[in-house]
Design a protein that fits this description.
three-stranded antiparallel beta sheet
Length: 122
């Protein structure tokens, strides 16, 4: 199980890092929206998700939240927080190990205020 947790965390973190670069570039170009990559656990996923930059920033305000294509959530580990036709916002709230890994791999971890959202955990 630990190997599965590590694989999911690494894959989703890689996609999140790509999206951080996309958001930075879009911001430099004064764009209001962008095409992001699905941040799901499937390393072969190449699905593109259209989102407003402010929506993406809201997702990224918490290190356990990810932007995924509809149906790409992992119900054993994730809870869907928001759905729309373009994407879903999921949170790593069903497994503490995965939530911890998501926070540790979050490129914004040093920028965010200290706090523990463990209260969202079941």
């Amino acid at each position: 199980m630990a190997t599965e947790i590590n694989r999911i965390a690494r894959t989703e973190s890689l996609f999140r890092d790509v999206n951080e670069r996309i958001a930075e570039t879009a911001d430099r170009l004064d764009a209001e929206d962008a095409e992001f990559v699905c941040e799901c656990a499937d390393a072969d996923c190449g699905e593109r998700l259209h989102a407003q930059l402010d929506e993406y920033q809201q997702v990224r305000s918490d290190g356990v939240r990810f932007l995924v294509a509809p149906g790409h959530e992992e119900p054993a580990y994730e809870r869907v927080l928001h759905r729309n036709p373009e994407y879903q916002v999921i949170a790593k709230t069903k497994d503490r190990r995965l939530a911890r890994a998501a926070r540790e791999l979050d490129p914004r971890a040093d920028d965010s205020p200290p706090g523990d959202q463990a209260s969202e955990m079941k």
